[in-house]
């Protein structure tokens, strides 16, 4: 591994002729094997594989936000529950920035202490995904792959459909001035919202679409701008329960009653949705099931290295509570 400039797991997967390793990398590893006179000891390899049973769970870089988001906790619970059943260990990898996460991943992979990684998020141009792919490391995404799509295993919801159904739910309650409040990582919810409006010949009004960087930051100014419009919306689709809690607080401060003055529907169906007053109508995206499906897939691919990359869609469903009403 040192001579070829790759991780030990890449050497292992090359020895098994795993299709996830590029031809160029395989040639580099095999050249190093010939130069060193290395021969694979399959008996030792099989013995080691019985004890090397650890999956790394990669969270997005953040100083605080991910530890406050119930989605990640529920996904980790689903992963851990499935891993326990199959006698695999799991370990969480995170950091304040991407460099810190990358160093942890590099250390784990080079020491051979991890069999694969589950990445709990998906975003464009991610250097962590670039590293995992270039090193031939086994990884699974929760979220739709935007890089190396054909070679990537991922578990996701149909977020486009979920966003569309949420907006349609508000439309059927009689709402026509429907706004969207979301984070810049929830673009599919926004696209589904726009499709629902278009299907009823309702205009997508730019002033009704507000996107914030992080759901747990102070977003009161952006929310207030949405609510204080002369022709303010009668309903808002919110991409995350945490953000919906902030919306409810701003409504309270400005003497807007929920749902009489404003209906709210959000996503995730987390503890926050049940603790608010009124309780939030929310789309349950099955975070725990996303986690357990990801664990199931990565263990299948660890134990059967020649499996093709799979894509799995976990269903969502609407939980009706008290934050929406007819007009």
Number of helices: 13
Beta-strand residue percentage: 15-25%
pLDDT < 50 stretches: none
Helix content: 40-55%
Keywords:
6-stranded mixed sheet; single chain; 13 helices; alpha/beta; 6-stranded parallel sheet; 327 residues; elongated
Task: Note down, in words, how this protein is organized.
44% of the residues lie in helices and 16% in strands. It has 13 helices and twelve strands. It has helices at residues 8-15, 23-36, 42-51, 65-68, 70-85, 98-110, 127-134, 159-172, 187-199, 220-227, 241-253, 271-275, 287-303; strands at residues 54-58, 89-93, 116-119, 139-142, 153-156, 178-183, 209-212, 235-238, 263-267, 281-284, 311-313, 317-319. A six-stranded parallel β-sheet has the order 2-1-3-4-5-11. Helix 7 (127-134) links the parallel strand 3 and strand 4 (139-142). Helix 1 crosses helix 2 and helix 5 (70-85) packs across helix 13. The model has no long low-confidence stretch (mean pLDDT 91).
Task: Please write out the topology.
Blueprint (H helix, E strand, L loop, with lengths): L7 H8 L7 H14 L5 H10 L2 E5 L6 H4 L1 H16 L3 E5 L4 H13 L5 E4 L7 H8 L4 E4 L10 E4 L2 H14 L5 E6 L3 H13 L9 E4 L7 H8 L7 E4 L2 H13 L9 E5 L3 H5 L5 E4 L2 H17 L7 E3 L3 E3 L8
Helix pairs in contact: 1-2, 5-13, 8-9, 10-11
In a nutshell, what does this entry contain?
The protein has 327 residues and is an alpha/beta fold.
């Amino acid at each position: 591994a040192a001579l070829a400039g790759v991780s030990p797991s890449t050497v292992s997967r090359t020895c098994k002729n795993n299709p996830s390793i590029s031809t160029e990398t395989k040639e580099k590893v095999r050249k190093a094997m010939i130069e060193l006179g290395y021969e694979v000891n399959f008996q030792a390899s099989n013995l080691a594989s019985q004890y090397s049973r650890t999956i790394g769970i990669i969270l997005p870089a953040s100083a605080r936000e991910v530890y406050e988001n119930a989605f990640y906790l529920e996904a980790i619970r689903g992963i851990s529950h499935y891993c326990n059943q199959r006698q695999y260990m799991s370990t969480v990898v995170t950091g304040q920035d991407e460099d810190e996460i990358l160093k942890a991943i590099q250390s784990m992979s080079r020491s051979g202490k991890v069999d694969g990684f589950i990445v709990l998020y998906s975003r464009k141009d991610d250097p962590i995904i670039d590293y995992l792919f270039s090193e031939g490391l086994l990884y699974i995404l929760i979220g739709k792959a935007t890089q190396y799509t054909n070679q990537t295993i991922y578990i996701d919801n149909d977020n486009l459909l979920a966003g569309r159904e949420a907006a349609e739910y508000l439309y059927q309650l009689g709402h026509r001035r429907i706004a969207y409040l979301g984070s810049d990582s929830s673009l599919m919810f926004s696209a589904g919202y726009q499709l629902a409006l278009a299907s009823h010949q309702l205009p997508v009004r730019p002033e009704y679409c507000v996107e914030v960087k992080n759901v747990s930051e102070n977003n009161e100014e952006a929310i207030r701008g949405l609510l204080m419009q002369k022709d303010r919306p009668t309903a808002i689709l919110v991409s995350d329960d945490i953000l919906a809690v902030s919306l409810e607080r701003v409504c309270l401060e400005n003497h807007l009653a929920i749902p009489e003055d404003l209906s709210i529907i959000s996503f995730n169906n987390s503890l926050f949705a049940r603790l608010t007053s009124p309780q939030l109508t929310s789309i349950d995206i099955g975070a725990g099931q996303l986690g357990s499906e990801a664990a199931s897939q990565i263990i299948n691919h660890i134990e059967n290295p020649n499996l093709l990359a799979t894509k799995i869609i976990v269903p969502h469903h609407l939980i009706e509570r008290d934050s929406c009403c007819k007009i």
